[in-house]
Amino acid sequence: MLNKRSLAQAPQRPLPKKLHIKTFGCQMNAYDSERMAEALEPQGYALTEDPAEADLVILNTCHIREKAAEKVYSELGRMRLVKESRRSEGRDTLIAVAGCVAQAEGAEIMARARVVDIVVGPQSYHRLPDLVAEASATGRGVVATDFPAEAKFAHLPERPRGKVQISAFVTVQEGCDKFCTFCVVPYTRGAEFSRAPSEIVAEVERLAGHGTREITLLGQNVNAYHGAGPDGRPWTLARLLRRLAEVPSIERLRYTTSHPLDMDEELIRLHGDAPKLMPYLHLPFQSGSDRMLKAMNRKHTAPEYEAVIGRVREARPDIALSTDIIVGFPGETDKDFEATLALAARARFAQAFSFMYSARAGTPAASLDGQVPEEVKRQRLHAVQSVLDGDRHAFDRATVGRRLKVLFERQGRKPGQIAGRSPYLQAVHVEGPEKLIGQIAAVDILATSPNSLTGVIKSGFEWREPVQAAV
Ligand code: 5AD
Ligand code: SF4
């Protein structure tokens, strides 16, 4: 029987509260959002899709281009209405801005959007429980945007809990020392930092034990990875990938984003040697003009970039290449832009992301002469995208009639459909049983549509129990 004394001694369970996270930007932000949810779970926060029922709303923001940053302020406008309506019902809502806008603008955000209670930069997520407690106790805004000396990864809780992630992201490297003149990343994410291989292996083994079959290693400059190995010597990304390939139930490995300069021989060779390393490489080239590449401080020329992808294709002839391109960098002439178009056409990318240059305050390129008019940028974007779309469709069409291994990740849009990814990261939809989710099956590709492939599961495919790794 409980008496007063035993009640007082019972462990205090935090009251259940709701947390809504809206994520903008890159995959690293998606990973960080999951980690923030996990850090707040012990405080009693459970995730909700609906901001109107949330006690705490986190906007995990992106600062890479102007449009991305502006989206945050319009979202904060919407959150102000939610907060006011909840307040009229006697309920409080804390609003936190996390991510790269938080890091870049700090306390400025509170001046511009008074609705914000917490501003937290990417290196301080492990402090979130304390920041939330402080903001709700004092009713005053709190800002945490230092780059602390201790690594945040060491302070975030172990994952995962809850739902199975068939394909999971794992951040292995963060920050960047390359200082491309257009880019805010070295300022918002800070200096390059690689996690220790032992930490990464443990995280991947835990995920594998919970049903994960595919891992994508994340880093702003992931192929510059150099985490301190068990012997104290740095491991390369290739070394890390080889170790992760030994985890039995991890069937697929990917990594993103890479810099051409760090595509070393060992990593290139691995694309030919390691069956678990998927034939897909995202390697931004930004511009086909050496003059622009120099002004961008990319530290390589266009022929050097093409030599790298040539070597990658030698190692793995069927590899799907993906890239990032910027049009309208300050000083870009028609001739420079034509060099970009020509390189794109020669490289035949399976996937590409192209952007109009967007001046970011504090970066060297923002104060360069020769800013290109918006209209010219728009025309160039249009022109390059039509080349890139053509190549993407050609790549997809070339897989029609082939048999590809597909890792099924979820139900499809229509009942009875399941969806997954090919080795080349193409979305594939088939008619199939739900029990195949989490499995790899051979699929005969029948047709392409603008954003996916459709096919049929090879007849005679037999479902097998998932292998569980020993953890
Ligand atoms: N303007 C336009 N595009 C940019 N990128 C990064 N900074 C800028 C900018 N200021 C693009 C680059 C990079 C991708 C993630 O975003 O192509 O590779
Ligand atoms: Fe930004 Fe990538 Fe250049 Fe680093 S290498 S500064 S993250 S574009």
Give your account of this protein's structure.
By secondary structure, the chain is of the alpha/beta class. It is 34% helix and 21% strand. It contains 14 helices and 19 strands. The protein has a 6-stranded parallel β-sheet with strand order 2-1-3-4-5-6, with helices on both faces. Strands 15-16-17-19-18 form a 5-stranded mixed barrel. A 3-stranded parallel β-sheet has the order 7-10-11, with helices on both faces. β10, α9 and β11 form a beta-alpha-beta unit. The longest helix is centred in the last third of the chain and has 25 residues, at 374-398. The protein is globular, with a radius of gyration of 24 Å. The model is unreliable at 1-10 and 465-471 (pLDDT under 50). It binds 5'-deoxyadenosine and iron/sulfur cluster. 5'-deoxyadenosine (5AD) is lined by residues 64-65, 182-183, 284, 286, 324, 326, 355, 357-358, 360.
Number of strand elements: 19
Approximately how much helix is present in the residues?
A: 25-40%
Distance between the termini: 39 Å
Radius of gyration: 24 Å
Counting DSSP H or I runs of 4 or more residues, the number of helices is 14
Uncertain stretches of 5 or more adjacent residues: 1-10, 465-471
Strand order of the largest sheet: 2-1-3-4-5-6
Q: In percent terms, what proportion of residues is strand?
A: 15-25%
Query: What is the approximate shape?
Result: globular
Distinct small molecules bound, one entry per kind: 5'-deoxyadenosine, iron/sulfur cluster
